[in-house]
Amino acid sequence: MTFNGTLEELQSLVEGLGCFGHWVHEGAFEMLVIEDGESNLRLNWWPGTGTLMLVGDPAQRRDLEPRLKEALAGRS
After folding, report:
1. Which of 4, 10, 21, 29 could form a disulfide with 46 if both were Cys (CB 3.0 to 4.6 A apart)?
2. What contacts 24+ positions apart, CB below 8 Å, involve 25-31?
3. In the predicted model, what is the mean pLDDT of residues 45-72?
4. Is the predicted pLDDT of residue 22 greater than 80, yes or no?
């Protein structure tokens, strides 16, 4: 997945999907630590390349990943 907007635009997009947590700057990438009380999901974004990666337990990604891809496609 890729996202070539600003951090603020990405934050708005994921909040629109009901994903809340805190953002951490990790050198070359930004990371959203999703705080839903159930999962260990993280959303990593490298602004330089636009690479966007949802990481964590595959069973927990199953619901969010397709919705995220659909939201990203809707931006095109």
Report:
1. 29
2. none
3. 93
4. yes
SS3 annotation, the chain:
CECCCCHHHHHHHHHHCCCCEEEEEECCEEEEEECCCCCCCEEEEECCCCEEEEECCHHHHHHHHHHHHHHHHCCC
**Which residue bears the tokens 């629109």?**
16
Residue 48 clears pLDDT 70, i.e. is over it: yes
Please report, in angstroms and rounded to a whole number, the separation of the first and last CA atoms in the chain: 13
Burial of 32 (0-12, 13-18, 19+ CB in 10 A): buried
Banded model confidence at residue 76, pLDDT cuts 50, 70, 90: low
Side chain identity at residue 6, one-letter code = T
In this prediction, residue 6 carries a pLDDT of 95
Distance of CA 74 to the CA centre of its chain: 15
